């Protein structure tokens, strides 16, 4: 079953209708009925084309693949992993990876996506963009994918830097100088001089925390007795 003509962008009404149908399906006792699989696979494709995300539905697809190994479609698995990457720094990718049979890890696309996840987790940011441009063309079919990755990188930059060279930041985000302002506005970064970007003063964001514990005589009575 397909939700829409593959030659046309899905409408808002089609997306909302699909969400309602899938939510109802996942609440039923037979959520792992293999007859649901074609519907859910189309729903994964819909997420990629309409730029929304449903982790619970995607985990249900991977679970159905576990129960029915001959039904596995690696293209759908790849789409699920790519969508999970768009929700970094949350642990969705790890949850999905744990449901994928290890025999599929050697598939070229699956292996490339897993390496991409590793590069993102270890902040090999320039290698991320090289992989996307040369080894992982499938990501281009996921609407909003690159901007979701840029958003994650922005979070990493926020936690790591106080100031950063503008050219380096452009390389991290894989954007041209003229497009950088959009991301600066989103994260509240400020230009300092010609070449520097002020991220944030981490010392000012550190908050002291006072812990007040109420200790009664009864609390320490046994200790005092044992110390006699």
UniProtKB/TrEMBL annotation:
<comment type="subunit">
    <text>Component of the eukaryotic translation initiation factor 3 (eIF-3) complex.</text>
</comment>
<dbReference type="GO" id="GO:0043022">
    <property type="term" value="F:ribosome binding"/>
</dbReference>
<dbReference type="GO" id="GO:0001732">
    <property type="term" value="P:formation of cytoplasmic translation initiation complex"/>
</dbReference>
<comment type="function">
    <text>Component of the eukaryotic translation initiation factor 3 (eIF-3) complex, which is involved in protein synthesis of a specialized repertoire of mRNAs and, together with other initiation factors, stimulates binding of mRNA and methionyl-tRNAi to the 40S ribosome. The eIF-3 complex specifically targets and initiates translation of a subset of mRNAs involved in cell proliferation.</text>
</comment>
<dbReference type="InterPro" id="IPR000717">
    <property type="entry name" value="PCI_dom"/>
</dbReference>
<keyword id="KW-0648">Protein biosynthesis</keyword>
<dbReference type="GO" id="GO:0003723">
    <property type="term" value="F:RNA binding"/>
</dbReference>
<comment type="similarity">
    <text>Belongs to the eIF-3 subunit K family.</text>
</comment>
<keyword id="KW-0396">Initiation factor</keyword>
<feature type="domain" description="PCI">
    <location>
        <begin position="53"/>
        <end position="213"/>
    </location>
</feature>
<dbReference type="GO" id="GO:0016282">
    <property type="term" value="C:eukaryotic 43S preinitiation complex"/>
</dbReference>
<dbReference type="InterPro" id="IPR033464">
    <property type="entry name" value="CSN8_PSD8_EIF3K"/>
</dbReference>
<dbReference type="InterPro" id="IPR016024">
    <property type="entry name" value="ARM-type_fold"/>
</dbReference>
<dbReference type="GO" id="GO:0005852">
    <property type="term" value="C:eukaryotic translation initiation factor 3 complex"/>
</dbReference>
<dbReference type="InterPro" id="IPR036388">
    <property type="entry name" value="WH-like_DNA-bd_sf"/>
</dbReference>
<dbReference type="InterPro" id="IPR016020">
    <property type="entry name" value="Transl_init_fac_sub12_N_euk"/>
</dbReference>
<dbReference type="InterPro" id="IPR036390">
    <property type="entry name" value="WH_DNA-bd_sf"/>
</dbReference>
<protein>
    <recommendedName>
        <fullName>Eukaryotic translation initiation factor 3 subunit K</fullName>
    </recommendedName>
</protein>
<dbReference type="GO" id="GO:0006446">
    <property type="term" value="P:regulation of translational initiation"/>
</dbReference>
<dbReference type="InterPro" id="IPR009374">
    <property type="entry name" value="eIF3k"/>
</dbReference>
<dbReference type="GO" id="GO:0033290">
    <property type="term" value="C:eukaryotic 48S preinitiation complex"/>
</dbReference>
<comment type="function">
    <text>Component of the eukaryotic translation initiation factor 3 (eIF-3) complex, which is required for several steps in the initiation of protein synthesis. The eIF-3 complex associates with the 40S ribosome and facilitates the recruitment of eIF-1, eIF-1A, eIF-2:GTP:methionyl-tRNAi and eIF-5 to form the 43S pre-initiation complex (43S PIC). The eIF-3 complex stimulates mRNA recruitment to the 43S PIC and scanning of the mRNA for AUG recognition.</text>
</comment>
<dbReference type="GO" id="GO:0003743">
    <property type="term" value="F:translation initiation factor activity"/>
</dbReference>
<keyword id="KW-0963">Cytoplasm</keyword>
<dbReference type="Pfam" id="PF10075">
    <property type="entry name" value="CSN8_PSD8_EIF3K"/>
</dbReference>
């Amino acid at each position: 079953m397909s939700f829409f003509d593959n030659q046309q962008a899905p409408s808002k009404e089609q997306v909302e209708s699909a969400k309602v149908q899938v939510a109802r399906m996942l609440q039923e006792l037979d959520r792992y009925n293999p007859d649901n699989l074609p519907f859910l696979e189309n729903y994964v494709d819909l997420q990629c084309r309409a730029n929304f995300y449903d982790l619970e539905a995607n985990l249900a697809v991977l679970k159905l693949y576990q129960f029915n190994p001959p039904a596995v479609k690696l293209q759908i698995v790849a789409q699920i992993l790519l969508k999970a990457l768009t929700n970094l720094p949350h642990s969705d990718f790890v949850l999905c990876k744990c449901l994928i049979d290890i025999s599929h890890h050697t598939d070229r696309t699956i292996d490339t996506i897993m390496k991409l996840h590793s590069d993102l987790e270890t902040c090999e940011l320039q290698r991320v963009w090289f992989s996307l441009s040369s080894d992982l063309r499938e990501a281009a079919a996921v609407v909003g994918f690159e901007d979701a990755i840029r958003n994650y990188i922005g979070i990493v930059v926020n936690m790591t830097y106080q100031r950063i060279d503008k050219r380096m930041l452009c390389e991290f985000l894989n954007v041209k100088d003229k497009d950088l302002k959009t991301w600066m506005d989103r994260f509240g970064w400020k230009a300092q001089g010609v070449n520097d970007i002020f991220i944030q003063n981490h010392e000012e964001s550190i908050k002291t925390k006072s812990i007040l514990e109420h200790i009664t005589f009864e609390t320490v009575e046994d200790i005092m007795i044992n110390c006699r």
